[in-house]
Amino acid sequence: MISVRRVVDGELAALREVRLRSLAADPAAFGSTLDGERARPMAFWRERIARGPWFVAWAEREAVGVVSAVPTTTPAEYRLEAMWVDPARRGEGVAEALVDAALSWSRSRGATSVALWVFDGNPAARRFCERIGFRPAGRREPHPEKKSQVRECLRIQLWPGC
Ligand SMILES: CC(C)(COP(=O)(O)OP(=O)(O)OC[C@H]1O[C@@H](n2cnc3c(N)ncnc32)[C@H](O)[C@@H]1OP(=O)(O)O)[C@@H](O)C(=O)NCCC(=O)NCCS
Question: Mean pLDDT across the stretch 112-138?
Answer without folding.
Answer: 97
